[in-house]
Amino acid sequence: MSPRRSYDQYCSAARALDTVGDRWTLLIVRELLAGPRRYTDLHADLPGVSTDVLASRLKDMERDGLTTRRRLPPPGAAYVYELTGRGRELLPVLQALGEWGEGELGERRPTDALRAHWFALPLLRGLEGEGLEGEGLVEVRLEEGDFHLFVGAAGGPVYGYGAASVEPDARLVLDTDTCTAVAQGELTVRDAVRAGRIGVSGDSTLAKALREA
């Protein structure tokens, strides 16, 4: 475990950066907002991070009270990492960073990796920012893959990988260009639904509110 580095400044922002300012730390939080994950899964969804750096960051985050590690019961019998309550409190920080960085996305570069679930937080921000009535499970279908969102979640995971394991309250079908436009702040979820760029199905209050937006 690497020794804690500090800016040695009596400032809450500096203290926060002492803990989460290292490269990769907040992106690990992004991945763990989906719930417990194995080391191999984290490494696969953080292209560019070395095994040594990832292991070091996870140890630092456990030391700092952001994550815990536990062993799954058989037949899984693997170790998983998950956020603590303190770690989950970083969701609005990531959402604010994402909103601030909307204009930085620009065109996708040939070297840019992409995972479908990286659209989860901006799309969740777009849904919750609409002031829609209702909350629940939303499944999202993209060409790159599926993921699901927990709109209005009070605790625990805020999104998940793949299709929902139960019937969702709403199902959204859209293409990557539309999801990118929402992530860049160029298009709201309401406007995308009105324009027919997002298909909405489901009978829940949330699905009806989206269709009637």
Task: Describe this structure as you would to a colleague.
With 213 residues, the protein is α+β, with helices and mostly antiparallel strands. The protein is built from ten helices and eight strands. Strand 4 and strand 5 form a beta hairpin. The chain is globular and about 55 Å long. 26% of the residues are buried.
- Strands ordered across the widest β-sheet: 6-5-4-7-8
Round the Cα radius of gyration to an integer and report it.
18 Å
Runs with pLDDT <50, length 5+?
A: none
What structural category arises from helix and sheet content? alpha+beta
Distance between the termini: 50 Å
Strand percentage, roughly?
15-25%
The tally of strands reads: 8
Order of helices and strands: HHEHHEEHHHEEEEHHEH
Characterize the main sheet: 5 strands, mixed
What is the helix fraction of residues, given as a range? 25-40%
What is the mean predicted local confidence, pLDDT?
A: 92
Q: Which outline best applies? A: globular
What is the count of DSSP helices, taking H or I runs of 4+ residues? 10
Layout: helices, strands, pairs:
Elements: H1 12-20, H2 25-32, E1 37-38, H3 39-44, H4 51-63, E2 67-71, E3 79-83, H5 85-88, H6 91-100, H7 120-128, E4 136-142, E5 145-151, E6 159-161, E7 170-174, H8 176-183, H9 189-194, E8 198-201, H10 205-211
Brief synopsis:
Helix content is 38%, strand content 18%. The protein contains ten helices and eight strands.
